[in-house]
Structures are given as structure tokens and as C-alpha cells.
User: Fold these one by one.
Assistant:
Number 1:
Amino acid sequence: MLVREANTDGVVTRLADEDLDLLLMIRNFELALLDLFAKGELNGTTHTCLGQEYVPVALAPLLRNDFVFSNHRGHGHYLARFADPAGLLAEIMGRAGAVCAGVGGSQHIYRDGYLSTGVQGQSLPVAVGVALHFKRTGQHRVAVAHVGDGTWGEGAVYEALNMATLWRVPLLVVVEHNGIAQSTPTEAQLAGTIADRARAFGLAHHEVRTADVDAIRAELSPVVARVRHHHEPAVVEFHTIRLGPHSKGDDTRSAAELAELRDREWSAVYSRCFPDQYAAADALAHERIADLVADVSARPPSTWPASPADDRMDVAS
């Protein structure tokens, strides 16, 4: 692993090649999806994580054997977990090699300790149940639920937090607070703060305001350890940026606002700190994703069932 040091006073001071490669693979994957939709080559909908890619990349080494519950904006969560753009793209396109035989599409993926869904807030009660199972069976594993700031309008969130604290389960709630819920600014739909809401239920709360993956890992490693070994449920709130539309093309923000966001999101910071490394890695990621799109597009449609399958959610293995 090659790690480079920045010579500038930017936000990011260290950058490993493998982290940048994963970040840019996710970025170019998401851009390719929007391009495919614009060309009319995809059906349904999709919610990209443009601007938020660093969150699952930073967390990935801390969550190797844990159960991750993703959400509607979950491509980055899946790719950081499995590094499988071929399986995910085939799933979205309904082509051979799809991770769920093409029936899950963009939002509903199940694979080896990973589940995503498009239903806001529903993953939290399920994650509490899985965390309780981990505690009772002494597995020292964490149930991780990714939610957004808009999800805090769902009553199921508060029921889940109440049970998590009462039962002292190894639950980690990851909040990707991007400041906008579909097309509504957070300050127009969320009273108070997420921190105060978490603390009202006795959960530890941690805020992350950097996109430096090394700094995030150093900060959150002891947090995850306490959740895992001491069953102290916690909320980690990432103050992040959503660059893309809510879905394919429904962004109501002004050009000036989007330009300001682009200037300070992670890829702009990284490219300023490490221009040569970034440019080379981005070009390679773009080429690889373009080749992948061509390959998957040429595959035959996926079939269901692809093979005999056990449809139980096996959280014990």
C-alpha cells in the first residue's frame, strides 16, 4: 500500500492508493449510472451517493465481519463492502451475473451480511434485532444502520433507539447528514439536532466533519470498539454533501449552491492536495468503469431463480 503525504495545508494529509482507487471507483460508477439513465438504457430509479463516497470507504476496515444495513442511497455502501461493481451493475441492468438475479435493482440488495432497502427508517428496528442476536450469541459483531438526516422524521427510528439503549445492544447508527431531504433543506424539516435526539435516548453521539479517511478511522475506531465489546450503542453523524440529485434528475438547488458544494466536497479537496495521484487514479477508474459498462450491457438478461437459494437472512454466519 503506497501512502502519500500532502505538502499543503489541506484537509487531507495522507492518502493511500487503495483508498483513492475505491473512492474513485464508486464515483465513476455513480456517474456512469446517471449517464445510462440519461441515454434511456436503465429503467426504474436510482439514488447516487455522489459526494458521500468517503463515508463507507472510511468505515470499511472497521466493519469487516459486521452486518451492514444500507438504504436507498446505498451503492457506495455495497461497493466499499464487496468491491463488486460488476455484480451491482448487472443487478441494476438486469443482466447475467447480477448479485440478486436482477430482482432487487438499485435499492434492494442482500448479500453476506449486507441488506439495503428503499424504505426509510425500516432498517433500524431490524438492525436492533440483529444486534440483540449478536449480543445473546456472544459474536462480538456490530449491526450498522446507515440513515440520512431526512430519516429522523420516521417514528420507527425512535422506537429502535429506545430498544437499543434499554437492551444495550451493539448497534452503530451512521447518519449521512447531507443537509437535504429529497428536495427539502434539513433546517426546514428537522427541529433541534440529531445529537440531542440521540442523547435523549442515552446513546453516545459523535460528529465527523472531515473527509480524511485516515482521520475518520482513527477517530471512530475506539467508538466501534466500545459498541462491539461493551454493547454501547452509538450514533455517528457525518456532515457530508450530496452532489447529485435526489434521484436521476430532480435537483432543485441553484447552480450557485451546487458550485459552492462542488468546491468543498471530498474529491475537490483530494484533487487539490494530491493533483497528480488523483488525476491518474481518476482516469484509470473512468476507463475501468467504461469497460465494465460495455461488458455488462452485452450480457444476456438475468434469470430467476438463478440457482436454488435459501431465502433466510442468515445473520449467524
Number 2:
Amino acid sequence: MSEDPFAIRRRGLMFVLSSPSGAGKTTIAREILARDDNIAMSVSATTRPRRPGERNGVDYEFIGLTEFNMMVNRREFLEYAKVFDNYYGTPAAPVTRALDAGRDVLFDIDWQGTQQLAERARDDLVSVFILPPSMAELEHRLETRAQDSAEVVAARMAKAADEMTHYAEYDYIVINRDIEVSVASALSILNAERLRRERQIGLGEFVKGLREGR
């Protein structure tokens, strides 16, 4: 079957979720991936140690500081940042391939990384900031996930207040009172952004064909 010359294609988009640690962005990201087949997780490179259960090349690309710095020097990252004494970065090549193929890419990154993405590819970017319902609830979530020491939890709480001041830089805000509602909200944002006129490649020719009776 020959390709329809009036078919509408869509360029992929970069769907960013950011939040203070513990506010729920990682859980929301996992649910989006489980429920939507046309979006894939951007796998960041990081210098931090691997946590129990994490898989190299799936959760992160775990690399040394020397290799990370070499990638920075070769300008191979869309964005990178230092967070809690460790470095994180998004390799550009796989993201570009996905967008060109019409697939969306999901990012679980902080405000620093989002700013860099906006500088390099604002037209492809859709950003969502996840807020906790209260600071008490945020602290409770950090303590109950039992991944960090009391000192690390205290540091994350101190940093959260600063991170939340960047909410106004984002396209959308979701207050994560209920995880199911928050996931539904994020998916609604994603689906609406896919329908934006400027993302529809070939739309003008399609409408021209309709007017000509094709």
C-alpha cells in the first residue's frame, strides 16, 4: 500500500515532570508509561551510586565522573545539572531520534534541567510541575519510602522550599493530593498537547485536500 500523501504526521514532544523529591513525579511518570504506548522514558546518565533494584540502562546510565565530563565537553547532553553532589544529564541523540519518529519522550528532571531544555528546544517542550499538598505530607512521604537517612531527608526538605519557587516557569501545575487524580491530569495534559495545531505535520495539505473534495 502506498503512503497517503495527505496523511497527518506529528512530531514528538518532550513531556517534563518536575517536583521536589518525594512529591510524586516518579510514581506519576511510571503510571504514564504503563498507560500510554507512544511515550518512552528518557534515560538519564548519572554519577550517583545505583540504588537497590535499579537497572543500568533502564533507570539510569550509571557512569563515572570522568566519562560524564567528557560527554559534557563533547556537547552530548540536552541538559545536565548537579543535584545533591551528583551529576545528571540527558543524552541528546536518542531523544532527537524519538521526536523525529513522532514518539514522545518523558523526562523526570529538576527545574535546572527544564530551563536548559527550554533554551534548546522550547517548541518541543511541555512542562508540568508537581506540588505536594503540604510540607508535612512531603516530609512524611520522604520518611516512609525509607531510601534515605534522616540527614538526607532533612536536606531534601530544605531544598524543596527553593525548588518550589520555580513553579511559575512551568506550563502546567498539578497538586498531588491523590495519585490517581494526578496521573489522570498529567495524561489529559499530554493528550491535549498532542493535538496542538503546530504539532500536526501536513495539516495544511490535509485541509486543502478536504476542500478539493479528496
Number 3:
Amino acid sequence: MHQAGYDCTVSYVDSSGVKKAVVLLSGGLDSATSLMIARRDGFACHAISFDYNQRHRLELGCARAVASAGGAVDHRIVRIDLSRSGGFGRSALTDDIAVPKDKPQGGTIPVTYVPARNAIFLAIALGYAEVVGAFDIYIGVNAVDYSGYPDCRGEFIEAFERLANLATAAGAEGRGRFIIHAPLLRMSKAQIIKTGLELGVDYSLTTSCYDPAPNGSGCGKCEACRLRLAGFASAGVADPASYQR
């Protein structure tokens, strides 16, 4: 039986013989690796990024660079305001809440969690996939070296895949089966980095910091920076990102 996200080798091929996939691309380390895995799997990749008025919007420039270097056939940036000014907020990434520095978040869901973000992003990516004729969607969520977000778990990916095949005309009419690929789900950050390097990912194009300086340098202290730095250290590779002194 197919397990959502990590085992399936069956994919939809259109009448022209092209395998298409939609790849969620933030401009970070994980999504850059996910893009190259999709390329390795033989897909023509339609990358999609989101400008949700996040405090680290500098990542969108990185997403453009990663999409270009990674050979995406198309890259779209969708604007959706999830910030406090847009009537949402309630996250350190989208509201006037300080990003925690130099301390692990423990077993609680951290304040950097953006309410339902991955559900929102996947829903839009699903609509985009139906329009371009793709039945494969790649997302770079990770449930090993991560911050404890509920929408990065395998249970969520599996549930969304079931929803995708119920909520779309393409799924209901049997034109294909949507597959949500989460190839990094059970990998450590070091394993992700090693895989990406083997596939030619240029990590100097990526950013991970939740609270970067105006010039793009990482703070080196938020949880995203610390996970990234620890991953490169474990992989035995220098992190090409710049950090504030």
C-alpha cells in the first residue's frame, strides 16, 4: 500500500510524456533539497513560493535564485497576508512577537509556528497542481531535526493527501491520484545536507534565519539558525551562509 510522502514511485504522466510536479519552495535549505529530489525523480518542476508578509521575506529572493539554479520550469510567488496587519498574526514570524534566541523551545509548539501555514500553502499548491496538470506535490517538511510544528508531521501529510483526492475535480473524476511527497520527513538535518550536496544544491543561495539582518545575514541564534548550523557541523561541511557577528 502506498504511504504518503516517502515510498511511492508511481506518478502521473501527461499526454506529452512529461511528468509534472509542484514544489513548495521557501528559499530555505530543506525546500531547496526537496526541489532537487523532485528533479532527480524525473519531474518537470513548477515551483511555488509564498509572500505571506513574513518577517524574513528576504527568503523570497533566495527562492527565486534556488528555482533558477535548480532548473524549475516555472516559479510563482503567491501573495497571501498572514500577518497581524492582514487580520491574522499570532506568530513571531508574522506579528509583533520577538523571535526566541539561544534557547530550545522544549516540548511546546514554539511561537514561530504560523497557524495552519502548511495546510494553507498545500491547499494553494493543490489548486495550482490541478491547473498545470500535475498530480505530484513536493514539500520539504521534516519531523526529525525540526521545531515541533504540528503541520510537519507524517500524519498531517497523509491526511492532506487523502483530502487532495477528495477535494478536487481531477481526483473525483479519476483522472489521476494526487501524491504529497515529503522526501525529507524522516531525515536528520545532516542527512538532508549530504543528500542535497550529492544532488548539486548550492546552499549558499539559501537562507534559514527567522530574524535576518537587512543584508540577509543570519542571526545565528534563532532555532532555525541553530538547527542549520548543527546540521552542517554534523555533516562535516562548512555552512556557506553568512551570519551576524
Number 4:
Amino acid sequence: MFKNIFSFKIFGSNLGIDLGTTNTIIYAEDEGIVLDAPSVLAISQNDGRIMGIGKEAKEMVGKTPKNILAVRPLQDGVIADFDIAQKMVKYFISQVQPHRPLIGPQMVIGVPSQATEVERKAVVDIAAGVGARKVHLIAESVAAVIGADLPLSEPSGNIIVDIGGGSSETAVISLNGVVISHCIRIAGDEMDRAIIQYLREAHNLFIGEQMAERIKITIGDLSSDKEEKMKVRGRDSATGFPHEMEVNSKEIGEVLFPPVSTICDMIETTLEETPPELSGDIMQRGIYLTGGGACIKGLDAYISKRIHLLVNMVAQPLLSVALGTGKLLKDQKLLSAVEATLPAD
């Protein structure tokens, strides 16, 4: 009993982290997912004081006075504001480990396969700054494969498509490594911007990011199934007054087609560059979808029709990267193998 108490005070729990543009998800060894929070921080421009982090800060987006700024420190899948990102991560770590240990945790963090050396170093520096004793970076696509319990170490190919908030990535995985990968800055945020632009141009209605995201999640649908409707509130551009109108899933689906089509172009490019020996495996197994953006209704069927391959949604698309980093905490041999798969800049 005394040994366990002593160990708890000395050593921090090892952590797996999916540091995403939209959400940050943390997996603690032997505990599972312990945090899933929006990657947003609200800060006072007068004195730099933190006014809110995570869900609280997200609710402030578009509603703050001029002296308070709600910031998303990650853009397009990478760190855009180092200082704010470090403050945010430090706060999240304090939530899952209230008492800072004498010896910090080991951290496994997912990063885009094509992250530059500078972008990877920023992640390492933030982790070190919040007390990590050792930091391992692995490709998010590899982490997603592990988190989804797909074959990784076999000499066979799996193609995974991760559609996040700021970026979409497709990668062919075989023998613990990334064989081919492509990443574009078209994902959930771009879909939100398309909805905002459409309502402004077609209906003279100004809406914010949160309303656009709500529309996408609620009635965004790429299928031709039953039509759904939703009431949307915003500001009428003609009168300047608050206005409410109704939109339907069919028109929102049409708005989403252009960004989704660009994602399909990326998938096709990846397939064209895939070695023929792995193409047969992919034809048999199909494509695996993960990430928050993959949850749009009818997306799997649309991609399948466009690419002419079976499309499978992984069991927990929002958590697969974090679950993968968590599993690697318990398998140091596999961690060493996949960590080396990140390309040098």
C-alpha cells in the first residue's frame, strides 16, 4: 500500500494525446480516455489572463467583447500559436493530473504524417514545457490504425482516411509504417466556412462558426434519404436585425459536396501512387474512415460511389487516434517501430 502511494506522488501517469484542431483528447495509461475538450482558449487582451479553456472558451466564440479573444491555437492540424497552445495543454494536463509529479509522464502524441521538422519540434517543446519526461511523436494515421484495431505489422496494406477539423489525411499503412500519404487543409472547418458563405450569398443570413458547425452536424447529409429541416438564427444582411429561417439537409448536402470532392481527389491520388502489391489488399479490405469530419451522414456511401471501393467507418472515429496513442504506451517495442516512420523534413 505504501509503495503505491509513494509511486503516485513521484511518477505521473503516462499519457497519449490527440492534439487536434477542433478537440484535444487525452488517454491516461490504465485509465483510458480521461479528457475530450475543444481546443479553444479565451484570453484577456488587457492583461493576458485566461478567461476560459475548452468547452467554456468554445461557448465564448463570437460572443466576446473586444478585450477578450477566443483563440484556437491549432490551425490546419498544426500549432499556429505556440504560447497559447502551451497554456491550453498545461491546463488540460492539470485537469487529468491535478498534482504535478516529481517525475513527469511519458507522452505519445499524434502528428500529421507530413508535419515539418519545425512543426514536430513545436509539439515536443510544448510537451516538455508542461513536464513530460519523454516525448514520442507518431503519425496520426498510424495511431488511428492502431486505435481501430486494424492490421499494422503485417506485410499487407490498409488505407485510412482521417478527416479532422483543420486537415484531412489519407495514408497507406503496411509493416508498421506509412507507405504513401497525402494531407490537405480541407476538412471540417472548411465545410463550416462553406455553410457560412452559402447562407450569406443565398439567403442574406450571417451566421457564426458555432451555428455553422451545428448545421453540419445536425442536417449535413450527402445521401438522398429522408429530408431533414432545421431552424437557423443569424443576422439579416439587409435589415441588420436578428432573423430566423429554415434550411434543409438537401441544400446543406449540396454545399458540402465541393470540399468532400476535394477530399476524394486526395484519396484517388493516394490510390494511384500505391504500389500494386498493396492495391490488391486495399481492393479486398476497402477504405477506413476516421475523424470527426467522417461522421457526416452519407459520407461513406458517397466516397464509396466515387472511388468504387468499399468504405468502412471505424468503430470510434472521434477517438481512434487517442486510443492508438494509448495502446502504444503499453507496447514499447511497437512504439519504437512506429515512431521511426515519421519522415525527416
